[in-house]
Automatic annotation (TrEMBL):
Annotated SUPFAM superfamilies: Metallo-hydrolase/oxidoreductase
Region (Disordered) location: 1-30
InterPro entries assigned: Metallo-B-lactamas (IPR001279), NDM-1-like (IPR050855), RibonucZ/Hydroxyglut_hydro (IPR036866)
Domain of life: Bacteria
Name used for this protein in its record: MBL fold metallo-hydrolase
One family name in Pfam for this protein: Lactamase_B
Taxonomic source organism: Nakamurella antarctica
Residues in Metallo-beta-lactamase domain copies: 59-266
Length: 362
């Protein structure tokens, strides 16, 4: 996800924003049933604590599984989140450095991994776990900036040097001890095990934690609805999924699990009904974005930026300075269409041009 407390210009450049900027707002789909307790630490199921840290006008939620034999925490936020909120919360709950056995990063984005080094300092014997496909970018902030956040630079969507400096300042990483691919289990008590599930789409290596005992699914950013929200429920910026087929497969997988509780990083706690609505909202967004891309390509060749600017007003509503974040999902759709032979990308132009292949329907 993009730098919290910053936003892009329509050209793709990022500019710092004051903490009270109205651009980063939060989405809560109409009709969703949610549990609205936003206190710092809440027990959402037996032995499962939700700990919330502010990030500007939004928040990051970490999840603590506390068993009799071991504790496991999911995501560490920024370096400041870990030091000022998450670690003090664990201490107030009586969790010791020795009892924290596992630190799981759902994916490589810095608002989920930036506190890893702080947790390594606090609990040096804990095992740090991430999806194998995200390992490199979970260990190296420079790889994250160049390979993930700078992927679309040739299309005019990139971070500014100021933004990159902010990412570096917020992020203190450490080695990943174990890279996982899914279906691994963690024993927390004699009668309690939780499972790691591969849930790609937002990133290649995105992983989630399934708790069969409570039927709670901790998914990080694996599913993102129709917008990324602020704490007040208003739209902030587009859902930043990247790999479309993987993303849709993950949505289908979450449906198959039919969680009683869907626990994300940036949305409120969802019960079973709210989770179903959220998944429906997710697939609806994907379908509507595809329709917008198809319509624009039918009019003639496009650049990534022109597709973004044509599609973004149909959703949100988002401030135009947040529109470039739509580049990630748009490029995911473009890649799938290219793989199907439905379009061509002309890299001889600056920026590259996208055009439909005549006679091929999406």
């Amino acid at each position: 996800m993009p730098l919290r407390g910053a936003q892009r210009s329509q050209s793709g450049a990022l500019h710092n924003l004051p903490a009270n900027s109205s651009t980063y707002q939060r989405f809560q789909p109409k009709g969703h049933r949610v549990m609205t307790n936003e206190t710092n630490t809440t027990e959402v199921a037996p032995g499962l604590m939700r700990i919330v840290a502010p990030i500007g006008e939004r928040f990051i939620a970490s999840y603590l599984f506390r068993g009799e034999e071991a504790s496991l925490i999911v995501d560490t936020g920024f370096d400041s989140s870990a030091r000022e909120v998450f670690i003090p919360a664990l201490e107030s709950l009586g969790v010791t450095p020795e009892s924290l056995k596992y630190v799981v990063s759902t994916h490589c984005d810095f608002d989920h991994t930036g506190g890893n080094a702080a947790f390594r300092e606090w609990s040096p014997n804990a095992t740090f776990v991430a999806g194998e496909a995200d390992r490199h970018q979970t260990e190296s902030v420079e790889a994250l900036i160049v390979e993930r956040y700078g992927e679309l630079a040739c299309h005019g969507v990139d971070e500014t040097e100021e933004s990159k400096a902010g990412i570096r300042a917020a992020t203190q990483l450490t080695r990943v001890d174990v890279g996982m691919r899914g279906e691994e289990t963690f024993r927390l008590s004699e009668d309690w095990k939780v499972c790691l599930v591969h849930t790609p789409g937002h990133s290649y290596g995105s992983v989630s934690i399934w708790d069969p005992r409570s039927r709670a699914f901790v998914i990080g950013d694996a599913v993102l609805g129709a917008t990324v929200p602020l704490a007040n429920g208003e739209p902030a910026f587009p859902p930043t999924y990247r790999y479309l087929d993987d993303y849709l497969a993950t949505v289908a997988l979450v449906r198959k699990f039919a969680p009683a509780l869907l626990l994300t990083s940036h949305y409120r706690v969802m019960d079973a009904e709210a989770a179903t609505d959220f998944l429906d909202e997710t697939t609806k967004f994907v379908d509507e974005l595809q329709s917008s891309i198809d319509s624009q390509l039918a009019e003639g060749p496009q650049t990534l930026t022109s597709i973004i600017n044509g599609a973004a007003p149909l959703f949100g509503p988002w401030d135009p300075t947040a529109w470039p974040y739509l580049g990630l999902p748009v490029y995911g759709h473009v890649e799938r269409m290219q793989a199907r032979g439905e379009l061509e990308i002309d890299h001889s132009t600056t920026p590259p041009t996208v055009r439909s292949v005549a006679g091929v329907a999406s």
